[in-house]
Amino acid sequence: MSQTIIPTRLVGPLKIVFAKKIFEINVPLATYETPLWRSVGRVARLSCLLDGIQTTVLRDVMTRSILLEADSAQTLFDILKDLQRKSENLKELVEKSSKFAKFHSYHAEVIGNLLYLRLAITTGDAAGHNMVTKAAEQVLDWLLKEYPQLKYVSLSGNYCVDKKVSAVNGILGRGKSVVAELTITEELCIKHLRVSPKDIYNLHIKKNLLGSILAGSLRSANAHFANMLLAFYLATGQDAANIVEGSQGITHVELRGNDLYFSVSLPNIIVGTVGNGKDLPFVQENLKTLGCLEKRPIGENSKRLAAIAAATVLCGELSLLAAFCNRGELMRSHEVLERK
Amino acid sequence: MSQTIIPTRLVGPLKIVFAKKIFEINVPLATYETPLWRSVGRVARLSCLLDGIQTTVLRDVMTRSILLEADSAQTLFDILKDLQRKSENLKELVEKSSKFAKFHSYHAEVIGNLLYLRLAITTGDAAGHNMVTKAAEQVLDWLLKEYPQLKYVSLSGNYCVDKKVSAVNGILGRGKSVVAELTITEELCIKHLRVSPKDIYNLHIKKNLLGSILAGSLRSANAHFANMLLAFYLATGQDAANIVEGSQGITHVELRGNDLYFSVSLPNIIVGTVGNGKDLPFVQENLKTLGCLEKRPIGENSKRLAAIAAATVLCGELSLLAAFCNRGELMRSHEVLERK
Amino acid sequence: MSQTIIPTRLVGPLKIVFAKKIFEINVPLATYETPLWRSVGRVARLSCLLDGIQTTVLRDVMTRSILLEADSAQTLFDILKDLQRKSENLKELVEKSSKFAKFHSYHAEVIGNLLYLRLAITTGDAAGHNMVTKAAEQVLDWLLKEYPQLKYVSLSGNYCVDKKVSAVNGILGRGKSVVAELTITEELCIKHLRVSPKDIYNLHIKKNLLGSILAGSLRSANAHFANMLLAFYLATGQDAANIVEGSQGITHVELRGNDLYFSVSLPNIIVGTVGNGKDLPFVQENLKTLGCLEKRPIGENSKRLAAIAAATVLCGELSLLAAFCNRGELMRSHEVLERK
Amino acid sequence: MSQTIIPTRLVGPLKIVFAKKIFEINVPLATYETPLWRSVGRVARLSCLLDGIQTTVLRDVMTRSILLEADSAQTLFDILKDLQRKSENLKELVEKSSKFAKFHSYHAEVIGNLLYLRLAITTGDAAGHNMVTKAAEQVLDWLLKEYPQLKYVSLSGNYCVDKKVSAVNGILGRGKSVVAELTITEELCIKHLRVSPKDIYNLHIKKNLLGSILAGSLRSANAHFANMLLAFYLATGQDAANIVEGSQGITHVELRGNDLYFSVSLPNIIVGTVGNGKDLPFVQENLKTLGCLEKRPIGENSKRLAAIAAATVLCGELSLLAAFCNRGELMRSHEVLERK
């Protein structure tokens, strides 16, 4: 057993509004791409001169889709009608499977004689991959007994969707859906980022929106969410393969008078403060620094973690767009910093 | 400065055919999700009992798309017609920008009065992010001088596409496009994976193909390429945010008589054996273990690295599909291994 | 005012199972691509020798998404929480707006400070475009009064989604979601289509599934649903631009022993038996031929029409796949028929 | 044999710049949705008060993808390398297959042991569906003889892509890629459309760009291209199922000082002035009205037709966006007009 050691630095401070409280924190980022620290840091520090980055957690569920088959769509339709009257059973099965699992909802898709049943479950402060798998096992067992017309195909039908690009995760939810917003006065924008709000806005439209559409992107319009998410996930002991779905998010910018309204919406942030990977000493330390190991109602620590992740993404996103407005800045900063 | 330390293990041996040579190697995988080691390992060892995993590198380019604008599409059309006669200039500019950069091609897209020009460049043994950025800078400068009707918008127009889901990367290429293939006799399949080739095949169709289509995936049909790529990229000092595009790949399975033909096609593996992150001691050691620091023609070490990455992905992919065929196996293995 | 006259022919008979009744009908298809008639017809007639094409209508809603904005995501989140308690108001508003409108559900998406509210409504036997627009108007008026923090952006926010490619329509529904299924014995398959079930199956996997994935398709895997839908929509007075979403459907094939199970799933068939375009004499005649102008509970005539549309799609889809299995057949049939 | 008769009206006049010539024409539109005439007509007439709608045809090819298989990716790679040296053979085969076919290029994709070979051909004034199929037949025959390691799978591999949503058609081209642009002074915009350029611009960003991204659209960002394309295709004898790919286009809007720059980019307009469906008397009349049956170099009549199609799309697109800016206008216009 060897070790992979990734350079990590506390970046910030960053001023955040979460759950109607305001606070400043430093954020640990683990990355081989060290210019990222400076990039996130400059907007983080700018946020401290302003009202802070407001975060809103819109949704919180983890999902698993089981896959079954019958002889025909008609059989599945009849079963689904019957199942509607039995959602209490599903709730019971899910909540018996684990102390922290709370049943949220299910969504069914039928293709020919195949049934994809996507379970959405709230998983407390855990990211919840294993918790939903356990719950899915229980539901599967019960379905196969309750409806002998059904046959097992798979515990996961790729409609969950775990670590793969999809449209369903953004629409129906997987992980925490978070919006982070920052309003910047024209003066501070020009002073700290060396660009006007208008330049940021125009670049955003042509690069993030039109460029992404042209590239054949899917429910995703941003410059580089993946970079910040990766560094944040690694430093906080998350399963970083979740950046695949996590990075499918949308930057939205507006001019408000002369000021800049800058927002990032990430419908699929998958993080936990407990569970696999979280008991490593440096992870514990980083979660503590972020104030995410405190006594709080179940689920609140991981929501706070997701909110900080989104705020960090906002910093890096705005910083890169500003750099692209200034021809040559980007290249120089990379060259200078990587040579150090 | 602190450190993020990720558990890493050599998995294997794995039998690979690359560049018409056959060899066995152990592959370092860094992950918080430790059951992955066992999962990849069992198919790796199975490959040693067979003819090995055949790898084919179909394509190798790195890309950057610059973004410019004019007054109208007609102006852009006239410029593009003129540019066709001047591709030699582009070649010269690119190849002057860096010792290892070789011009490959360019692709232009026009939306209204906007021009997205995507440069494809071969970057030797480096992943090439910085090399293409430098080359793009040179091309940009020249274009703005050559065609005063053009105005700068961005050094990157999100049509590159770096670390974001897209269709263009798979179609036109970014990174190394690799296919890995393994044929398994029915006997060994049943003995080692406890499933028949037919069961694997049927699950693949319903989960990887239909499930992904249903989920609204995009040029992607696999169970979990992202997991293996992440662990491989981290252990070999790669920029792991590239798993976003890297994981958009396709598993293709066939029954050949009673045997199983199992393949993974990854059009966007982005790896290097030199450059940023590669001089860390453990990275050097891991690259050496993989035989990717040897004296070879330029580009061959990184192609070998990409081929091994694809072969590793194949092992993990087949292993998970086999586990899903056996109800309950997946859950048990996670529970047992994570408790250790 | 001139006229566009499209050649139209009754094709069939076709044997259908709908709402647990079995019947045979001829289907009018309007097309400039006249080989389509023969193509659909041969499988239609084959269905009469078998148990018929079983159809299942899984879902039936029409949608419209209104677009509003506030100062921040937090404001929208608070409004959405309040709105959850007031879904009765939405129901009332919708059902007052039109005699046939029944409120089904709503779905909200927040991006930054923007709110996309997608209303799903059952619209009786009308396709329902205008009915949902009227209902959306009422809801919009009420929301703007109830929540003065909201500002109008658009009566439609492109999240409906009307006549445009999308993922949301398939996942959440728009129009009627129909599955049509036919099981064909090996003998009749070979006799009538000159191919074996196995050949159809293999071609389907490589062309419809893998080919579509490769092409960067989206929630769509079929050979040519659009052709049959267009001809059917035109002949029955539908707004044929709805083939854009209608053709995003999935063919699913299985081998059952030696027999062929062939199915098409179309989540977005948008048809009506009343409303705009339906009072033209030839449309009335065609709807009557299809048995879709009879006295039935509200909505049943249009569901029957959708079921027949799906069955017609199945015929054309299977016929083309069979033709592709026979090299050269396709080309010859086009040449011969178009010269007539 | 019966007839489907679609109400058709000449709308306009419309002022167009095509091939550096400027002219005014009336455009026939066939539709059951009769408010479309007024909607297109008001912007058409506005164009006559301005410099006209400038059109640019960027690209013109028709495509067909054949599908073959071998034992392995390595075999396919070797064949593709060999084929690069033989593109002259492909050219010869294609050009022998039909008087008007000109070889343009080919694009290959490999998935496992499958080869999708996409041929791009210029087809004169025909839409070219049959012409590329004939050419593909010839190429297929030759490939199977030249490379006995290859086996036939299908004459079309769904990578063409005919009448199906895709990313590849926009990126590599299918049909004519046309941009249409119109610049409108603030004064005329307010006078004729009752909205300011700024209102149009803001609505476009939030509805066409963000709304489409959110809906999980693919390389498509417009309000209703499909409506205009359908009416235009039907009236001019085109295969209207091609609106599926045709409607995947992008509206791009800018504010130029106080004026409005409005553009539509349609990469996949598939139209012909000769071939199937074009000899119907009303089609001949409509093509003549559009000036598309004149003696011109091969291909110029169909390019002109595509340019007019794009200009018509622009009119309808701008008109609808303006209507959405004025709350209630849309609903009223539908109600009033449909009752007539």
Shape of chain A: globular
Most extensive interface between two protein chains, with residue counts: A-B, 93 and 93 residues
The CATH fourth-level homologous superfamily of the largest domain in chain A: 3-hydroxy-3-methylglutaryl-coenzyme A Reductase, Chain A, domain 2
Number of DSSP helical runs of chain A? 12
The portion of residues assigned to helices of chain A is 40-55%
Report the order of strands and helices of chain A: EEHEHHEEHEHEHHHHEEHHH
CATH topology of the largest domain in chain A: 3-hydroxy-3-methylglutaryl-coenzyme A Reductase, Chain A, domain 2
CATH architecture of the largest domain in chain A: Alpha-Beta Complex
Write up what this structure looks like.
The structure is a homotetramer of 340-residue chains. By secondary structure, the first copy, chain A, is of the alpha+beta class. Chain A contains twelve helices and nine strands. In chain A, strands 1, 2, 3, 4, 5, 6, 7, 8 and 9 form a nine-stranded mixed β-sheet that branches. In chain A, helix 7 (197-214) packs across helix 11. Chains C and D meet through strand 1, strand 3, helix 4, strand 6 and helix 5 of C and strand 1, strand 3, helix 4, strand 6 and helix 5 of D.
